[in-house]
Design a protein that fits this description.
One of its GO terms (molecular function) is DNA binding. This protein is an alpha+beta fold and about 160 residues long. It is built from 6 helices and 8 strands, in the order E-H-H-E-E-H-E-E-E-H-H-E-E-H. The chain has a 3-stranded antiparallel sheet.
């Protein structure tokens, strides 16, 4: 399956937003993205769908409880993104509910190291240098979605 990659300007046009706004959100970790070459940010179709979904959640976040606290009510649109992604408006992080996804869709650092035949230390060094696949912290565990891992791996294909 051929993946399509979008530069920030192209992604911003498709999302009807400014390139600066999109890059800022990606840089601080609010939006999914891949880093290409010497730190260039690129987006895939899956990233654009997830960003669209996150924007919908923020628009719906104006629902207020009796105590005045704001809570998130995600829209259930299967065409835009899975409904298991929610944002915490206070700190701008992404929370994933692993109970809604099959276990096969998530990989641990050990799984990736076993597949690539590399030591775990190498994986964690890549993370420090922002060279590894995008990972989610779920509790005290790191998990990598299979689609993010495959996209990251496809960027390393030598021709």
């Amino acid at each position: 399956m051929q993946r399509e990659f979008y530069e920030p300007q192209q992604a911003a046009e498709l999302l009807h937003c400014s390139e600066a706004w999109l890059l800022t959100r990606a840089t601080v970790g609010e939006f999914p993205h891949l880093t290409w070459g010497k730190g260039e940010i690129v987006f895939t179709d899956e990233h654009l769908e997830e960003i669209t979904h996150l924007r919908e959640i923020r628009q719906d976040a104006a629902v207020t409880s009796d105590h005045g606290a704001t809570r998130t009510t995600p829209t259930q649109n299967p065409k835009t993104a899975p409904s298991n992604v929610a944002t915490s408006k206070a700190i701008g992080t992404t929370a994933i509910s692993t109970s809604e996804l099959p276990i096969a869709d998530w990989l641990s650092p050990k799984d990736i190291c076993a597949q690539l035949h590399i030591p775990e230390q190498t994986f964690y060094q890549w993370r420090v240098k922002n060279l590894g696949p995008r990972a989610y912290r779920i509790g005290r565990h790191l998990r990598i979605s299979r689609s993010d891992y495959e996209a990251w791996l496809s960027l390393r294909l030598e021709r």
